[in-house]
Amino acid sequence: MGFKDWYMYALGALIFGAFFVVLWLLIFNxxxxxxxxxxxxxxxxxxxxxxxxxxxxYGSSKGSSDKTEMLKKNGS
Length: 76
Known about the structure:
It is built from three helices and no strands. It is mostly helical.
């Protein structure tokens, strides 16, 4: 597994973790009215990136990536 693979998994884990941390902050912590809009915007951005991570790891992009790696190994 190369650097690109480790980087991809680390970035996916970071986005995954940040999504749940911001969601937890919005649900369980009393947030001043001034900061509530900032957290809502951050949550919206993280939801978009979270869906990209899930789509890559469990969608057609993962199958395409696996196929490309298999073709590289077979020399085709």
